[in-house]
Design a protein that fits this description.
This protein has 461 residues and is an alpha/beta fold. α1 packs parallel to α9 and α9 runs antiparallel to α10. The longest helix has 22 residues. The relative contact order is 0.13.
Protein backbone atom coordinates (compact mmCIF):
# COMPACT_ATOMS: atom_id res chain seq x y z
CA UNK A 1 0.00 0.00 0.00
CA UNK A 2 2.93 2.35 0.64
CA UNK A 3 3.90 2.36 -3.04
CA UNK A 4 0.35 3.20 -4.07
CA UNK A 5 0.16 6.02 -1.50
CA UNK A 6 3.55 7.31 -2.67
CA UNK A 7 2.34 7.39 -6.29
CA UNK A 8 -0.91 9.16 -5.45
CA UNK A 9 0.64 11.76 -3.17
CA UNK A 10 3.47 12.42 -5.62
CA UNK A 11 1.07 13.42 -8.38
CA UNK A 12 0.01 10.32 -10.33
CA UNK A 13 -3.25 10.70 -12.26
CA UNK A 14 -3.73 6.93 -12.29
CA UNK A 15 -2.18 3.88 -10.67
CA UNK A 16 -1.97 0.32 -11.91
CA UNK A 17 -1.73 -2.63 -9.56
CA UNK A 18 -2.63 -6.29 -9.28
CA UNK A 19 -4.89 -8.49 -7.22
CA UNK A 20 -3.93 -11.79 -5.65
CA UNK A 21 -3.86 -13.65 -9.01
CA UNK A 22 -3.89 -13.29 -12.81
CA UNK A 23 -1.36 -10.45 -12.89
CA UNK A 24 2.10 -10.30 -14.41
CA UNK A 25 3.83 -9.39 -11.15
CA UNK A 26 2.72 -12.11 -8.76
CA UNK A 27 5.92 -11.59 -6.77
CA UNK A 28 4.96 -7.98 -5.97
CA UNK A 29 2.99 -6.92 -2.90
CA UNK A 30 -0.39 -7.16 -4.60
CA UNK A 31 -3.80 -6.45 -3.14
CA UNK A 32 -6.51 -8.86 -2.04
CA UNK A 33 -9.79 -8.76 -0.11
CA UNK A 34 -10.31 -5.71 2.09
CA UNK A 35 -6.93 -4.29 1.12
CA UNK A 36 -7.96 -4.26 -2.54
CA UNK A 37 -11.17 -2.44 -1.62
CA UNK A 38 -9.22 0.03 0.51
CA UNK A 39 -6.77 0.71 -2.32
CA UNK A 40 -9.56 1.45 -4.80
CA UNK A 41 -11.38 3.65 -2.28
CA UNK A 42 -8.21 5.55 -1.41
CA UNK A 43 -7.63 6.33 -5.08
CA UNK A 44 -11.24 7.33 -5.67
CA UNK A 45 -11.06 9.70 -2.68
CA UNK A 46 -8.04 11.36 -4.30
CA UNK A 47 -9.64 11.37 -7.78
CA UNK A 48 -6.98 9.01 -9.12
CA UNK A 49 -7.90 6.34 -11.69
CA UNK A 50 -7.38 2.67 -10.86
CA UNK A 51 -6.24 0.30 -13.60
CA UNK A 52 -6.08 -3.25 -12.25
CA UNK A 53 -3.92 -5.85 -13.97
CA UNK A 54 -5.53 -9.04 -15.25
CA UNK A 55 -2.68 -9.39 -17.69
CA UNK A 56 -1.47 -12.99 -17.61
CA UNK A 57 -2.25 -15.68 -20.15
CA UNK A 58 -4.87 -18.06 -18.73
CA UNK A 59 -5.53 -21.76 -18.88
CA UNK A 60 -9.08 -22.73 -19.83
CA UNK A 61 -9.87 -23.87 -16.30
CA UNK A 62 -8.96 -20.42 -14.94
CA UNK A 63 -11.40 -18.38 -17.02
CA UNK A 64 -14.27 -18.75 -14.56
CA UNK A 65 -12.32 -17.39 -11.61
CA UNK A 66 -10.72 -14.66 -13.71
CA UNK A 67 -14.14 -13.48 -14.89
CA UNK A 68 -15.48 -13.63 -11.33
CA UNK A 69 -12.56 -11.47 -10.21
CA UNK A 70 -13.31 -9.02 -13.02
CA UNK A 71 -16.88 -8.88 -11.73
CA UNK A 72 -15.59 -8.11 -8.25
CA UNK A 73 -13.44 -5.30 -9.65
CA UNK A 74 -16.41 -3.94 -11.56
CA UNK A 75 -18.42 -3.84 -8.34
CA UNK A 76 -15.60 -2.00 -6.58
CA UNK A 77 -15.73 0.65 -9.29
CA UNK A 78 -12.22 0.35 -10.74
CA UNK A 79 -11.53 2.53 -13.75
CA UNK A 80 -10.30 -0.25 -16.04
CA UNK A 81 -8.70 -3.67 -16.20
CA UNK A 82 -5.48 -4.34 -18.12
CA UNK A 83 -5.87 -7.56 -20.11
CA UNK A 84 -3.57 -9.72 -22.25
CA UNK A 85 -5.63 -12.91 -22.75
CA UNK A 86 -8.03 -12.38 -25.66
CA UNK A 87 -10.36 -15.12 -24.37
CA UNK A 88 -10.81 -13.30 -21.09
CA UNK A 89 -11.26 -10.04 -22.99
CA UNK A 90 -14.12 -11.59 -24.97
CA UNK A 91 -15.82 -12.73 -21.76
CA UNK A 92 -15.47 -9.33 -20.09
CA UNK A 93 -16.79 -7.58 -23.17
CA UNK A 94 -19.86 -9.86 -23.20
CA UNK A 95 -20.62 -10.06 -19.48
CA UNK A 96 -19.30 -6.71 -18.22
CA UNK A 97 -19.72 -4.23 -21.06
CA UNK A 98 -19.46 -1.33 -18.60
CA UNK A 99 -15.95 -2.30 -17.49
CA UNK A 100 -13.26 -0.54 -19.54
CA UNK A 101 -10.43 -2.70 -20.85
CA UNK A 102 -6.88 -1.65 -21.66
CA UNK A 103 -4.77 -3.85 -23.92
CA UNK A 104 -1.68 -4.90 -21.99
CA UNK A 105 1.75 -4.14 -23.44
CA UNK A 106 2.20 -7.92 -23.50
CA UNK A 107 -0.29 -8.07 -26.34
CA UNK A 108 2.51 -6.57 -28.42
CA UNK A 109 0.45 -3.83 -30.09
CA UNK A 110 2.92 -2.08 -32.38
CA UNK A 111 1.06 -1.07 -35.55
CA UNK A 112 -2.27 0.23 -36.88
CA UNK A 113 -3.57 -3.30 -37.45
CA UNK A 114 -3.03 -4.07 -33.77
CA UNK A 115 -4.91 -0.94 -32.76
CA UNK A 116 -7.77 -1.83 -35.08
CA UNK A 117 -7.97 -5.27 -33.49
CA UNK A 118 -8.17 -3.63 -30.05
CA UNK A 119 -10.96 -1.32 -31.19
CA UNK A 120 -12.97 -4.16 -32.71
CA UNK A 121 -12.63 -6.23 -29.54
CA UNK A 122 -13.78 -3.64 -27.04
CA UNK A 123 -10.54 -2.11 -25.75
CA UNK A 124 -10.61 1.61 -24.99
CA UNK A 125 -6.85 1.97 -24.62
CA UNK A 126 -3.73 0.18 -25.85
CA UNK A 127 -0.50 0.11 -23.87
CA UNK A 128 1.93 0.11 -26.76
CA UNK A 129 4.89 -2.17 -27.17
CA UNK A 130 8.06 -0.59 -25.82
CA UNK A 131 9.78 -1.29 -29.13
CA UNK A 132 7.86 1.25 -31.23
CA UNK A 133 9.52 4.44 -32.48
CA UNK A 134 8.24 7.99 -32.18
CA UNK A 135 7.38 8.14 -35.88
CA UNK A 136 5.48 4.86 -35.59
CA UNK A 137 3.49 6.16 -32.61
CA UNK A 138 2.52 9.24 -34.60
CA UNK A 139 1.42 7.13 -37.58
CA UNK A 140 -0.57 4.80 -35.34
CA UNK A 141 -2.39 7.64 -33.60
CA UNK A 142 -3.62 9.22 -36.81
CA UNK A 143 -7.19 8.21 -37.50
CA UNK A 144 -7.42 5.62 -34.67
CA UNK A 145 -10.21 6.13 -32.16
CA UNK A 146 -8.41 4.58 -29.20
CA UNK A 147 -6.24 5.96 -26.42
CA UNK A 148 -2.50 5.28 -26.51
CA UNK A 149 -0.44 4.64 -23.40
CA UNK A 150 3.35 4.32 -23.41
CA UNK A 151 6.02 3.33 -20.90
CA UNK A 152 8.18 6.36 -20.11
CA UNK A 153 10.41 5.11 -17.30
CA UNK A 154 11.73 1.89 -15.81
CA UNK A 155 12.98 -1.54 -16.72
CA UNK A 156 13.08 -2.82 -20.28
CA UNK A 157 12.51 -6.52 -20.93
CA UNK A 158 14.74 -8.25 -23.47
CA UNK A 159 11.77 -10.16 -24.86
CA UNK A 160 9.58 -8.36 -27.39
CA UNK A 161 6.96 -6.40 -25.44
CA UNK A 162 7.56 -8.55 -22.37
CA UNK A 163 6.49 -11.79 -24.05
CA UNK A 164 9.58 -13.67 -22.94
CA UNK A 165 9.99 -17.46 -22.60
CA UNK A 166 13.47 -17.47 -21.05
CA UNK A 167 12.35 -17.72 -17.42
CA UNK A 168 9.76 -20.41 -18.12
CA UNK A 169 12.22 -22.61 -20.00
CA UNK A 170 15.11 -21.98 -17.61
CA UNK A 171 13.19 -22.63 -14.41
CA UNK A 172 9.48 -23.23 -15.03
CA UNK A 173 8.63 -19.67 -14.00
CA UNK A 174 6.74 -18.02 -16.81
CA UNK A 175 6.76 -14.26 -17.29
CA UNK A 176 3.48 -14.67 -19.18
CA UNK A 177 2.02 -16.24 -16.03
CA UNK A 178 3.31 -13.60 -13.63
CA UNK A 179 6.29 -15.45 -12.14
CA UNK A 180 9.28 -14.23 -14.14
CA UNK A 181 12.53 -14.92 -12.26
CA UNK A 182 14.37 -12.30 -14.36
CA UNK A 183 17.22 -14.56 -15.49
CA UNK A 184 18.16 -11.85 -18.01
CA UNK A 185 19.39 -9.76 -15.06
CA UNK A 186 21.92 -12.40 -14.02
CA UNK A 187 25.46 -12.75 -15.24
CA UNK A 188 25.73 -14.34 -18.68
CA UNK A 189 28.00 -14.07 -21.67
CA UNK A 190 28.22 -14.99 -25.33
CA UNK A 191 30.76 -17.80 -25.06
CA UNK A 192 32.23 -17.39 -28.51
CA UNK A 193 33.18 -13.81 -27.68
CA UNK A 194 34.54 -14.36 -24.18
CA UNK A 195 37.48 -16.12 -22.69
CA UNK A 196 37.03 -18.70 -19.94
CA UNK A 197 36.05 -17.09 -16.65
CA UNK A 198 34.88 -13.82 -18.16
CA UNK A 199 31.24 -12.90 -17.59
CA UNK A 200 28.97 -9.97 -18.27
CA UNK A 201 25.28 -9.12 -18.09
CA UNK A 202 24.83 -9.68 -21.80
CA UNK A 203 21.01 -9.82 -21.69
CA UNK A 204 20.44 -7.08 -19.09
CA UNK A 205 19.28 -3.89 -20.82
CA UNK A 206 19.54 -0.37 -19.44
CA UNK A 207 16.43 1.34 -18.07
CA UNK A 208 14.16 3.71 -19.98
CA UNK A 209 14.01 7.43 -19.15
CA UNK A 210 11.79 9.66 -21.30
CA UNK A 211 11.68 12.78 -19.14
CA UNK A 212 13.19 14.87 -21.96
CA UNK A 213 10.75 13.48 -24.54
CA UNK A 214 7.37 14.29 -22.99
CA UNK A 215 6.36 17.06 -25.40
CA UNK A 216 7.21 14.87 -28.39
CA UNK A 217 5.27 11.93 -26.99
CA UNK A 218 2.24 14.11 -26.35
CA UNK A 219 2.39 15.60 -29.83
CA UNK A 220 2.69 12.09 -31.29
CA UNK A 221 -0.64 11.11 -29.71
CA UNK A 222 0.26 9.49 -26.38
CA UNK A 223 -2.41 10.28 -23.77
CA UNK A 224 -0.91 8.50 -20.77
CA UNK A 225 2.66 7.91 -19.60
CA UNK A 226 3.36 4.73 -17.67
CA UNK A 227 6.04 4.33 -15.01
CA UNK A 228 7.27 0.81 -14.35
CA UNK A 229 7.71 0.34 -10.62
CA UNK A 230 5.56 -2.40 -9.11
CA UNK A 231 8.59 -4.31 -7.80
CA UNK A 232 10.30 -1.19 -6.46
CA UNK A 233 10.36 0.58 -3.08
CA UNK A 234 8.04 3.50 -2.15
CA UNK A 235 10.99 5.90 -2.28
CA UNK A 236 11.61 4.99 -5.91
CA UNK A 237 7.92 5.37 -6.80
CA UNK A 238 7.72 8.75 -5.05
CA UNK A 239 10.89 10.13 -6.65
CA UNK A 240 10.08 9.08 -10.20
CA UNK A 241 6.42 10.13 -10.03
CA UNK A 242 7.25 13.52 -8.50
CA UNK A 243 9.77 14.36 -11.21
CA UNK A 244 7.51 13.33 -14.10
CA UNK A 245 4.61 15.23 -12.50
CA UNK A 246 6.77 18.37 -12.32
CA UNK A 247 7.90 17.93 -15.93
CA UNK A 248 4.32 17.56 -17.18
CA UNK A 249 3.07 20.51 -15.11
CA UNK A 250 5.82 22.69 -16.56
CA UNK A 251 4.91 21.52 -20.06
CA UNK A 252 1.23 22.39 -19.57
CA UNK A 253 2.12 25.72 -17.98
CA UNK A 254 4.27 26.57 -21.01
CA UNK A 255 1.29 25.89 -23.27
CA UNK A 256 -0.62 28.53 -21.29
CA UNK A 257 2.15 31.08 -21.56
CA UNK A 258 3.52 30.52 -18.08
CA UNK A 259 7.26 29.88 -18.22
CA UNK A 260 7.38 27.73 -15.10
CA UNK A 261 10.97 26.60 -14.70
CA UNK A 262 11.69 22.88 -14.71
CA UNK A 263 15.24 21.77 -14.04
CA UNK A 264 15.51 18.73 -16.32
CA UNK A 265 19.15 18.19 -15.43
CA UNK A 266 18.36 18.00 -11.70
CA UNK A 267 15.42 15.69 -12.40
CA UNK A 268 17.58 13.30 -14.43
CA UNK A 269 20.14 13.34 -11.63
CA UNK A 270 17.52 12.32 -9.05
CA UNK A 271 16.13 9.64 -11.34
CA UNK A 272 19.61 8.24 -11.88
CA UNK A 273 20.42 8.38 -8.18
CA UNK A 274 17.31 6.53 -7.03
CA UNK A 275 17.97 3.63 -9.44
CA UNK A 276 19.91 3.04 -12.62
CA UNK A 277 21.53 0.36 -14.72
CA UNK A 278 24.61 2.30 -15.71
CA UNK A 279 22.84 4.72 -18.06
CA UNK A 280 19.38 5.45 -19.45
CA UNK A 281 17.90 4.83 -22.87
CA UNK A 282 14.88 6.07 -24.80
CA UNK A 283 14.22 2.45 -25.79
CA UNK A 284 13.45 2.36 -29.52
CA UNK A 285 11.90 5.82 -29.65
CA UNK A 286 14.58 6.89 -32.12
CA UNK A 287 14.95 3.35 -33.43
CA UNK A 288 17.45 1.98 -30.89
CA UNK A 289 19.29 3.37 -27.88
CA UNK A 290 19.15 0.15 -25.87
CA UNK A 291 22.41 -1.14 -24.45
CA UNK A 292 23.04 -4.44 -22.67
CA UNK A 293 25.66 -5.51 -20.16
CA UNK A 294 24.04 -3.35 -17.49
CA UNK A 295 23.67 -4.15 -13.76
CA UNK A 296 21.37 -2.35 -11.33
CA UNK A 297 22.63 0.32 -8.90
CA UNK A 298 20.94 2.51 -6.31
CA UNK A 299 22.79 4.86 -3.96
CA UNK A 300 20.32 7.61 -3.10
CA UNK A 301 21.47 10.35 -0.75
CA UNK A 302 19.82 10.93 2.61
CA UNK A 303 18.44 14.18 1.21
CA UNK A 304 16.71 12.41 -1.68
CA UNK A 305 15.25 9.75 0.61
CA UNK A 306 13.96 12.44 2.98
CA UNK A 307 12.32 14.21 0.04
CA UNK A 308 10.65 10.95 -0.99
CA UNK A 309 9.39 10.34 2.55
CA UNK A 310 7.60 13.68 2.49
CA UNK A 311 5.05 12.13 0.15
CA UNK A 312 4.09 9.59 2.82
CA UNK A 313 3.48 12.14 5.58
CA UNK A 314 0.01 13.56 6.08
CA UNK A 315 -2.85 14.18 3.68
CA UNK A 316 -3.01 16.99 1.17
CA UNK A 317 -6.04 19.27 1.39
CA UNK A 318 -7.83 18.65 -1.93
CA UNK A 319 -11.44 19.71 -1.48
CA UNK A 320 -12.82 22.98 -0.20
CA UNK A 321 -15.93 22.58 1.94
CA UNK A 322 -18.43 25.00 3.39
CA UNK A 323 -19.07 24.37 7.08
CA UNK A 324 -22.46 25.16 8.62
CA UNK A 325 -22.97 24.86 12.38
CA UNK A 326 -26.46 25.09 13.89
CA UNK A 327 -26.44 25.50 17.70
CA UNK A 328 -30.02 26.60 18.31
CA UNK A 329 -30.77 26.46 22.03
CA UNK A 330 -32.85 23.39 22.96
CA UNK A 331 -32.00 21.51 19.76
CA UNK A 332 -29.26 19.06 18.98
CA UNK A 333 -26.20 20.75 17.57
CA UNK A 334 -25.64 19.95 13.91
CA UNK A 335 -22.53 20.44 11.77
CA UNK A 336 -22.71 20.08 7.98
CA UNK A 337 -19.76 19.94 5.59
CA UNK A 338 -20.67 20.51 1.94
CA UNK A 339 -18.22 20.50 -0.95
CA UNK A 340 -18.11 23.90 -2.59
CA UNK A 341 -18.06 22.82 -6.21
CA UNK A 342 -20.15 19.66 -5.80
CA UNK A 343 -23.16 20.45 -3.59
CA UNK A 344 -24.51 16.89 -3.94
CA UNK A 345 -21.66 15.80 -1.68
CA UNK A 346 -22.42 16.84 1.88
CA UNK A 347 -22.43 15.14 5.28
CA UNK A 348 -23.75 16.09 8.69
CA UNK A 349 -23.09 15.09 12.27
CA UNK A 350 -25.23 15.70 15.33
CA UNK A 351 -24.00 16.55 18.81
CA UNK A 352 -25.56 17.16 22.22
CA UNK A 353 -28.43 19.60 22.84
CA UNK A 354 -27.26 23.20 22.71
CA UNK A 355 -27.47 25.07 26.02
CA UNK A 356 -28.02 28.70 26.92
CA UNK A 357 -24.58 30.37 26.85
CA UNK A 358 -23.24 31.62 30.17
CA UNK A 359 -21.14 34.25 28.40
CA UNK A 360 -21.06 35.86 24.94
CA UNK A 361 -20.52 33.38 22.12
CA UNK A 362 -16.91 33.22 20.88
CA UNK A 363 -17.64 32.82 17.16
CA UNK A 364 -13.96 33.10 16.19
CA UNK A 365 -13.02 30.22 18.48
CA UNK A 366 -15.78 28.03 17.04
CA UNK A 367 -14.64 28.79 13.48
CA UNK A 368 -11.07 27.88 14.37
CA UNK A 369 -12.17 24.52 15.73
CA UNK A 370 -14.37 23.78 12.71
CA UNK A 371 -11.47 24.52 10.33
CA UNK A 372 -9.13 22.03 12.01
CA UNK A 373 -9.47 19.49 9.22
CA UNK A 374 -5.82 18.44 9.14
CA UNK A 375 -5.31 14.76 8.39
CA UNK A 376 -8.26 14.79 5.97
CA UNK A 377 -8.55 15.75 2.29
CA UNK A 378 -10.75 18.76 3.16
CA UNK A 379 -10.19 22.39 4.04
CA UNK A 380 -12.75 25.02 5.04
CA UNK A 381 -12.57 28.76 4.45
CA UNK A 382 -16.26 29.59 4.69
CA UNK A 383 -17.99 28.91 8.03
CA UNK A 384 -21.59 29.75 8.87
CA UNK A 385 -22.73 29.63 12.51
CA UNK A 386 -26.36 30.06 13.53
CA UNK A 387 -28.44 29.63 16.68
CA UNK A 388 -26.44 31.37 19.40
CA UNK A 389 -26.33 28.38 21.77
CA UNK A 390 -23.39 26.86 23.65
CA UNK A 391 -21.46 23.71 22.71
CA UNK A 392 -18.27 22.34 24.21
CA UNK A 393 -15.10 22.24 22.16
CA UNK A 394 -14.80 18.47 22.62
CA UNK A 395 -18.34 17.94 21.28
CA UNK A 396 -17.61 20.19 18.28
CA UNK A 397 -14.38 18.32 17.55
CA UNK A 398 -16.23 15.00 17.61
CA UNK A 399 -18.88 16.34 15.20
CA UNK A 400 -16.21 17.66 12.84
CA UNK A 401 -14.42 14.31 12.75
CA UNK A 402 -17.67 12.40 12.17
CA UNK A 403 -18.84 14.73 9.39
CA UNK A 404 -15.46 14.60 7.64
CA UNK A 405 -15.38 10.82 7.88
CA UNK A 406 -18.90 10.55 6.45
CA UNK A 407 -18.04 12.88 3.58
CA UNK A 408 -14.95 10.82 2.80
CA UNK A 409 -17.17 7.75 2.72
CA UNK A 410 -19.39 9.35 0.09
CA UNK A 411 -16.40 10.15 -2.10
CA UNK A 412 -15.05 6.61 -1.79
CA UNK A 413 -18.25 4.88 -2.85
CA UNK A 414 -18.43 3.02 -6.15
CA UNK A 415 -21.26 3.95 -8.53
CA UNK A 416 -24.46 2.30 -7.28
CA UNK A 417 -25.27 0.76 -10.67
CA UNK A 418 -21.99 -1.13 -10.56
CA UNK A 419 -22.60 -2.38 -7.03
CA UNK A 420 -26.03 -3.72 -7.98
CA UNK A 421 -24.78 -5.46 -11.14
CA UNK A 422 -21.89 -7.11 -9.32
CA UNK A 423 -24.23 -8.34 -6.58
CA UNK A 424 -26.79 -9.80 -9.00
CA UNK A 425 -24.55 -11.59 -11.50
CA UNK A 426 -23.00 -15.04 -11.12
CA UNK A 427 -20.03 -14.58 -13.41
CA UNK A 428 -18.52 -18.00 -12.73
CA UNK A 429 -21.72 -19.76 -13.81
CA UNK A 430 -22.08 -17.64 -16.94
CA UNK A 431 -18.52 -18.45 -18.03
CA UNK A 432 -19.25 -22.18 -18.14
CA UNK A 433 -20.65 -22.16 -21.67
CA UNK A 434 -17.21 -20.99 -22.85
CA UNK A 435 -15.07 -23.34 -20.77
CA UNK A 436 -17.17 -26.51 -20.68
CA UNK A 437 -16.18 -27.38 -24.23
CA UNK A 438 -12.57 -27.84 -23.17
CA UNK A 439 -11.42 -30.94 -21.24
CA UNK A 440 -9.55 -29.86 -18.15
CA UNK A 441 -6.22 -31.19 -16.95
CA UNK A 442 -4.65 -30.90 -13.54
CA UNK A 443 -1.33 -30.21 -15.31
CA UNK A 444 -2.13 -28.17 -18.43
CA UNK A 445 1.53 -27.85 -19.37
CA UNK A 446 4.41 -30.19 -18.55
CA UNK A 447 8.10 -29.54 -19.11
CA UNK A 448 10.81 -31.97 -20.09
CA UNK A 449 13.23 -32.09 -17.19
CA UNK A 450 16.60 -32.16 -18.92
CA UNK A 451 18.75 -30.84 -16.10
CA UNK A 452 18.97 -30.57 -12.34
CA UNK A 453 16.03 -28.28 -11.52
CA UNK A 454 17.45 -27.58 -8.08
CA UNK A 455 19.70 -25.20 -9.99
CA UNK A 456 16.70 -23.40 -11.47
CA UNK A 457 16.76 -19.63 -11.56
CA UNK A 458 15.73 -18.07 -8.24
CA UNK A 459 13.51 -15.07 -7.73
CA UNK A 460 15.19 -11.75 -8.33
CA UNK A 461 13.56 -8.71 -6.76
Amino acid sequence: MDCLVAAVRSGADAVYFGGSAFNARRGAENFAGDELKSAVEYCRLHRVNTNVTLNTLLFDNELEKALAFAGELYGLGVTAVIVQDIGLAALIRRELPGLAMHASTQMGVHDAAGLQYCIENGFSRAVLSREVSLSEIKRMSEGCDIELEFFCHGALCMGFSGSCLYSSMAGERSGNRGTCAQPCRKKASVLSLKRAGEEEYCLSANDICMIDELAKLRDAGVCCLKIEGRMKQPEYVATVTRNYRAALDALYAKDLGDNTRFDAKAARSELYEIFNRGDFSTSHLYFDSVRTGRAGHAQPSNELIAKAHESLRGEAALYEVKASLDITVGKKARLTLAMQNEPDYSASAEGPFSQEPQKPLDVKRLEEQIKKLGGTVFFAQDCEISGGGFITVSALNAMRREAALSLEGLLKRAPEARQETAAEEDFERRALDITAAYPQSESPLLYERERNWEQAVSSHA
